[in-house]
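S.,

As promised, the heme C run. Input:
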Amino acid sequence: MRYGWMIALAGLCLFLFPGAVFAGEQRREDGPMPASKRECSSCHRIVTGNQPGPLKQPLPALCLSCHTAHQSLANHPTGVIPQNPAPGLPLDQGRLTCTTCHDPHRNRFGALLRLPQTELCVVCHRL
Ligand code: HEC
Ligand code: HEC
Ligand code: HEC
Ligand code: HEC
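Predicted complex:
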């Protein structure tokens, strides 16, 4: 019974923090979208009916047309070329843009981020 104490500890953790087991599942739920992001015509030209067409402006000018400045502490350069490949963080012609970090269509982790903030930065900035 070398591992008996580990099993007992795991059991105790499950008893104390049952939510932790399902944390991965909960993370995938989308949070509510801000009004401007539910309105397709904020960013897309509407060509036929209500079908969204091409973007009204190229990135990042599109986002900056409403967000004149990135106010947050996470103010980050765009147009720079990351050295490390970043799966799930799309680039624009190889360069960082607003939608590298922000998903314009889903709000999974708050602030439309593609990853939780604690995980996002270290994808490219390895410690
Ligand atoms: C905040 C700006 C924004 C809003 C609002 C927005 N989109 Fe987009 N959408 C984008 C961007 C940016 C792209 C990526 C296009 C690119 O990089 O060429 C995109 C791409 C798409 C695509 C192409 C497939 C894809 O996912 O890349 C579809 C379809 C689409 N949007 C549908 C919609 C619909 C439907 C709505 C309204 C419910 C909407 N969009 C609202 C910014 C937006
Ligand atoms: C037509 C104007 C408009 C455009 C274009 C636009 N936004 Fe926004 N955005 C807003 C407004 C207004 C808010 C404040 C919340 C709301 O009322 O929708 C907002 C909120 C946000 C937020 C904060 C969300 C939160 O939950 O705190 C982020 C992040 C964001 N926008 C990113 C972007 C990105 C990235 C683009 C380009 C792909 C973009 N926005 C394009 C108007 C715009
Ligand atoms: C390297 C990743 C990254 C890039 C690139 C990035 N952002 Fe952000 N953005 C963040 C993070 C992280 C936050 C902070 C969220 C928080 O504080 O809760 C944020 C917050 C925001 C917010 C909401 C709070 C605020 O500052 O007003 C808006 C709007 C926003 N970003 C727009 C943009 C726009 C527009 C661009 C492109 C010019 C952009 N972001 C590029 C990571 C990024
Ligand atoms: C997709 C890759 C990527 C992600 C994700 C990313 N960065 Fe960066 N970051 C870069 C690149 C590329 C540069 C510019 C080249 C360099 O200085 O390494 C940069 C530069 C910086 C700088 C220097 C800014 C300056 O003006 O010189 C800081 C600080 C920074 N990042 C912080 C962050 C933080 C905080 C986050 C998370 C919110 C983050 N980064 C997420 C790729 C990324």
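The beta strands are 44-48, 51-55. The chain has two domains: 1-30, 31-124.

- D.
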